[in-house]
């Protein structure tokens, strides 16, 4: 079978050779980075050098990098850990403000905090393109600023690629000294991401979205921000995240982050070019396809360059995905399906789409392996697939 | 052919899919998600709708080496099967949701979608045999393994549906299918058979209906009455908890004067009355079926020596004469049948061949 046309980089992007090399170099030399002997010290050195590499690339201090198993853990650690810490310091702080379009790794911990830990979670509205309504955020903060434990707003959306006004969020929150967390998993490597310059207090990143391995990520968090740990044990990572450090994976993660940040501008420009041709090509064949999220007049400033999220009226996204998959084209319906049952995307619903429109969508996400040929393959296949999918009564 | 394998997560559908691949078809596996909230479905007695079952189906597809997807049929299933199940019980009838699911979901919604997407047929793990008859039509026959035969629940399929169906297990025994699954390395080889109704957790129909029907229940209680004397023998908590022929759970304090067990003879949802009496009063000699569905050409009269009917899943073959007319079918049984509930299906056979089916609307005693 020929190599698939892989257009699901927002889910996982293939490892880059530099990361693979860095990781495999350490896989065979087993030692616990917490051990005191020479082998342990060698492993620890790998971890610390990796941490420094990551810090340099992300614009933070090495001591601010808390290594985790990935984005979901980092998001959980941020929202739960900071909430608990802030509330412990002042019991009035029970409010958590976030957007209705966050990843489930943020939304579900918040639901859980609301249900079990007295949190009052507010899902702030977004506009039709998925952008946070800043006025709503301001109003919400000002209603009771002393009661806000945390604001969490993603850097860019994983489904429709919409960038959030993180700088403005930070400015609003700063007026009341409220910490801000951002999930920058999708932004890293395609947008300039500088932790210190952004002014956020905590930031989630992960390896497998930037060409690193699965199972390695980080919460970058300012030293002044208290974080109550989720995982207790050996006291690694400033006692915020216990667990034996995975030196090979961390080395791979660091190599990927370093390369992704170094190549970011060039990569973004190339993705934007492919994106433009993909959208234009698909709409030529399927004129009524609807691009969700910021369109051509705004996408340079407001959208991830590699994200193409389209609704195909009259089609079920699942049918289209299957038909494209059969032709070797791999994409996503962009919706969570933890239970195996596809649900209409909460992101599209928050953007005001009808349930049917939300279920007629596909996400094509471009990445470092994407080529003009990949775009051409989609443009060639999409017409017959849409025609076929429209024959399905649902 | 391009074939869609409906995979429940059980051993039968897994082996059926594997055999379809071996027969040279281009097979794609799907698992039907029938609940928006699958965690709420059964996990104990194993139906076919839990997340675990979906994972079992996925692993079987991996082993067989076919693509696999989950199709969300939860809305259609709720509308066409679950709602109908509730309505029928509320009306004092006893529905068979498995037939309904085959008629409305597996061989309708799923088949239609499959055909629209470019597939030629749906393959399932049902035990029934298909062959082409002298007239060129596809005939459905009982499975070789009579103990596993599922032609009864497929009796609702019409010719078009049969033409696009494959049942590769019809000529096998369950024992052989399990052995084959083990040989093929399918981990579901030892998975227990599913029983009961997949959407009723723990098999407690009455409890499930009580919770789900709520205000739609025709009554929340009434009298259990001796059919012969009219005497009230006890109280019940809703007629929907009963089915004709039921003996257990009647909660009658006193035994019958003759000491014989009593059975539900009739259910009256409007008055909330459940009538009970001795077994002989359950005897059904004639019945009428509505909404007939024919596997092939619609017959007019079936009275050959090979003609029989089956009145419940895994029920006996009952010799009968069948007259088709107007909107329904009239069935005369050679020997009486007992505990026949309106709402159940009557499936008509000529020898091993399924002729068609209808929904029982009325039953009658000796004329």
How would you classify the helix and strand content of chain B by structural class? alpha/beta
The geometry of chain B reads as globular
Q: Roughly how many Å is the radius of gyration of chain B?
A: 21 Å
Main beta sheet strand tally, sense and closure of chain B: 6 strands, antiparallel, barrel
The strand count of chain A comes to 12
What does this structure look like?
The complex is a heterodimer of chains A (394) and B (367). Chain A has two domains: 5-13 and 264-389, Aspartate Aminotransferase, domain 1; 17-262, Aspartate Aminotransferase, domain 2 (3-Layer(aba) Sandwich). Helices cover 42% and strands 12% of the residues of chain A. Chain A is built from 14 helices and twelve strands. Chain A has helices spanning 17-27, 38-58, 71-89, 104-116, 134-143, 166-174, 195-198, 247-262, 264-285, 299-302, 317-326, 346-350, 355-358, 372-389; strands at residues 5-6, 65-68, 95-99, 120-124, 148-152, 180-183, 202-206, 217-221, 290-291, 307-311, 329-330, 361-365. In chain A, the strands form three sheets. A seven-stranded mixed sheet of chain A has the order 2-8-7-6-5-3-4, sandwiched between helices. In chain B, strand 1 (2-6), helix 1 and strand 2 form a beta-alpha-beta unit. Chain B has 367 residues and is α/β, with parallel strands linked by helices. The A-B interface holds A 318-319, 321-323, 325-326, 337, 339-343, 388-389, 391-394 and B 28, 31, 33, 35-39, 51, 54-55, 67, 69-72, 74, 112-113, 116-118.
What would you say about this model in short?
Chain A is α/β, with parallel strands linked by helices and 394 residues long. In chain A, 42% of the residues lie in helices and 12% in strands.
């Amino acid at each position: 079978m020929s190599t698939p046309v892989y257009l699901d980089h927002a889910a996982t992007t293939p490892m880059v050779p530099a990361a693979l090399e860095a990781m495999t170099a350490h896989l065979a030399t087993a030692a616990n980075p917490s051990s005191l002997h020479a082998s342990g010290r060698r492993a620890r050195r790998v971890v610390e050098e990796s941490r420094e590499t990551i810090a340099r690339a992300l614009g933070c201090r090495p001591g601010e990098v808390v290594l985790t198993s990935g984005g979901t853990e980092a998001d959980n650690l941020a929202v739960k850990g900071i909430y608990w810490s802030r509330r412990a310091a002042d019991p009035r702080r029970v409010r958590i403000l976030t957007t209705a379009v966050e990843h489930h790794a943020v939304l579900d911990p918040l639901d859980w905090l609301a249900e079990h830990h007295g949190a009052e979670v507010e899902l702030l509205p977004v506009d039709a393109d998925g952008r946070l309504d800043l006025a709503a955020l301001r109003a919400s903060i000002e209603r009771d600023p002393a009661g806000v434990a945390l604001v969490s707003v993603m850097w860019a959306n994983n489904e429709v690629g919409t960038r959030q006004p993180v700088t403005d969020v930070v400015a609003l929150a700063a007026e009341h000294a409220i910490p801000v967390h951002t999930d920058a998993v999708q932004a890293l490597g395609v947008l300039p991401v500088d932790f210190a310059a952004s002014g956020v207090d905590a930031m989630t990143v992960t390896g497998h979205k930037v060409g690193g391995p699965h199972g390695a990520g980080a919460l970058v968090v300012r030293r002044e921000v208290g974080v109550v740990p989720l995982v207790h044990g050996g006291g690694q990572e400033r006692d915020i995240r216990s667990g034996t450090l995975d030196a090979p994976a961390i080395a791979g993660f660091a190599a990927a982050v370093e390369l992704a940040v170094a190549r970011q501008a060039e990569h973004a420009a190339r993705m934007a070019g492919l994106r433009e041709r993909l959208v234009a090509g698909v709409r030529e064949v399927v004129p009524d396809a609807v691009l969700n999220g910021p369109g051509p007049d705004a996408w340079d400033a407001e959208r991830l360059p590699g994200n193409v999220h389209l609704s195909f009226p009259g089609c079920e996204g699942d049918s289209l995905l299957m038909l494209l998959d059969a032709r070797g084209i791999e994409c996503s319906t962009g919706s969570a399906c933890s239970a195996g049952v596809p649900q209409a995307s909460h992101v599209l619903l928050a953007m005001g789409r009808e349930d049917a429109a939300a279920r007629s969508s596909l996400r094509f996400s471009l990445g470092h392996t994407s080529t003009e040929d990949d775009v051409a393959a989609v443009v060639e296949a999409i017409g017959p697939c849409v025609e076929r999918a429209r024959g399905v009564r649902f | 052919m391009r074939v869609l394998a409906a995979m429940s997560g059980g051993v039968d559908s897994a082996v059926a899919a594997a055999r379809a691949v071996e027969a040279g078809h281009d097979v794609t596996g799907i698992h039907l998600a029938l609940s928006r909230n699958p965690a709420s479905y059964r996990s104990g007695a194993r139906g076919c709708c839990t997340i675990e079952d979906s994972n079992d189906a996925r692993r079987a597809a991996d082993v067989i080496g076919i693509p696999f997807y989950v199709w969300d049929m939860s809305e259609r299933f709720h509308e066409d099967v679950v709602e109908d199940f509730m309505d029928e019980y509320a009306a004092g009838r006893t529905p068979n949701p498995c037939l309904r699911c085959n008629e409305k979901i597996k061989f309708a919604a799923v088949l239609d979608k499959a055909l629209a997407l470019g597939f030629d047929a749906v393959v399932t793990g049902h035990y029934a045999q298909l062959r082409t008859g002298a007239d060129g039509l596809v005939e459905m026959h009982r499975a070789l393994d009579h103990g596993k035969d599922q032609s009864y629940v497929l009796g609702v399929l019409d010719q078009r549906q049969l033409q696009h169906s494959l049942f590769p297990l019809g000529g096998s025994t369950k024992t052989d299918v399990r052995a084959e699954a083990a040989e093929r390395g399918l981990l579901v080889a030892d998975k227990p058979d599913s029983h009961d109704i997949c959407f009723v957790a723990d098999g407690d129909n009455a409890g499930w209906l009580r919770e789900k029907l709520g205000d739609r229940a025709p009554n929340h209680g009434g009298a259990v009455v001796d059919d012969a004397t009219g005497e009230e023998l006890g109280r019940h908590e809703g007629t929907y908890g009963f089915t004709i022929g039921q003996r257990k759970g009647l909660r009658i304090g006193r035994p019958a004067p003759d000491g014989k067990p009593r059975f539900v003879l009739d259910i009256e949802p409007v008055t909330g009355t459940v009538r009970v009496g001795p077994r002989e009063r359950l005897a059904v000699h004639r019945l009428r079926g509505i909404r007939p569905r024919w596997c092939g050409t619609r017959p007019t009269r079936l009275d050959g020596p090979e003609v029989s009917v089956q009145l419940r899943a895994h029920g006996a073959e009952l010799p009968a004469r069948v007259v088709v007319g107007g909107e329904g079918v009239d069935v005369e049984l050679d020997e009486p049948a007992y505990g026949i509930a309106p709402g159940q299906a009557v499936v008509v056979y000529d020898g091993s061949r399924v002729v068609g089916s209808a929904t029982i609307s009325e039953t009658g005693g000796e004329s």
